[in-house]
Amino acid sequence: MDSTDGKISFEIPIQEHHLNAYKSLHGGMIASLIDFCGAMASASKGVRLTSLSTDINVSYVSSAGYGDTLLVNAECVKLDKTFAFTTVAVHNKVDGRLIAQGRLTLLVASILNDPENEFKNENAKL
């Protein structure tokens, strides 16, 4: 996983246990990637703990299968006193096809005052 201020990039090869009964990438796996990578994007802004997901939206665009490699790019587009808002895109690494896109909202209010947080966005401090 690569990360910068508010952005992460993550690659994962699709293995057999990621597939559904039709031998394509399971939708739950995609939703989990959007949840995880969105949370990591907010963490890359200095939030030590990402607290909890309050809303997730996934649009499934194309399929992927065994042996494909996914490239996931996530960005924390806004971090304020209460929430972190992220966008996530999942592409096939080889041909660039969009597999899915999503949004994740995280509640961060309960952990913002943690002394181990190192915010890179001073507007988010309480």
From TrEMBL:
InterPro entries: ACOT13 (IPR039298), HotDog_dom_sf (IPR029069), PAAI_dom (IPR003736), Thioestr_dom (IPR006683). GO terms for molecular function: fatty acyl-CoA hydrolase activity; isomerase activity. It holds the Pfam family 4HBT. Residues 24-96 form the Thioesterase domain. Keywords: Hydrolase, Isomerase. The keyword Transferase does not apply. NCBIfam families: unchar_dom_1. Belongs to the thioesterase PaaI family. This is Thioesterase/thiol ester dehydrase-isomerase. It comes from Gigaspora margarita.
